[in-house]
Amino acid sequence: MRDRFVRGRMLLRSLAADLTGADPLDIDITATCPDCGGPHGAPQIAGHALHVSLAHCDLGTIAAASLDHPVGVDVEPVAQDADRLAAIGLLTGSPELRSWTRVEAVLKADGRGLRVEPGDVRYDSDGAAWVHGSNRRYFIAEHDVDPRILVSLAIAMP
After folding, report:
1. Chain mean position to CA 66
2. pLDDT tens digits for 72-91?
3. What is the DSSP string of 20-36?
4. pTM for this predicted structure
5. What is the C-alpha separation between 95 and 155, in angstroms, rounded?
6. Half-sphere exposure of 61 toward its Cβ, with a 13 Å CA cutoff?
7. Helix, strand or coil for residue 10?
8. Tens-place pLDDT, residues 34-67
9. What is the DSSP string of 61-110?
């Protein structure tokens, strides 16, 4: 678990440095929980107007960043058991792994994460997503990084 945490922080530092021109060693990552103030909230890059998201699974760590728009990313192993897929179906309305990764990515980009019910993520006929009660729309894409994992990215539309 600690290795995964360190890998994620290194990846975010490298990505933030590439986008801002800063030295990776000067990138300060904070993660404050909006509910309790503890150090386990979504990562943020201190001192930079940079939107970042980070996701882990047993097979890897992935990060996303945007200079302009909120972004969220999720990664899950493609191999899932039937019980997990059934639970995804109960939470999202569809027992497909892609439903879960898309919902996670949207909720991370939304900034509230799982403090919002996964079933509150909606889709329009063009494939854009939003969280029920919000006007902000998100573009969603899947990225073919490795055949063993599914990666979904959500980025807020202008």
Report:
1. 12
2. 999 999 999 999 999 999 99
3. H---GGG--EE---TTT
4. 0.92
5. 23
6. 15
7. helix
8. 889 888 889 999 988 899 999 999 999 999 999 9
9. EEEEEESSS-EEEEEEES---HHHHHHHHHHHSS--HHHHHHHHHHHHHH
Amino acid in the structure at residue 34: P
**pLDDT exceeding 90 applies to what percent of the chain?**
81
Residue spans per domain, the chain: 2-156
Neighbouring CB atoms inside 10 A of 85's CB total 15
**In CATH, what number does 2-156 get?**
3.90.470
Evaluate if residue 27 carries a pLDDT over 90.
Answer: yes
Measured CA to CA, the distance from residue 56 to residue 69 in angstroms comes to 22
CB burial of 125-149 (b: ≥16 within 10 Å; e: otherwise) equals: eeeebbbeeeeebbbbeeeeeeeeb
pLDDT greater than 80 at residue 1: no
Q: Which of 6, 40, 43 is nearest to 28 (CA)?
A: 43
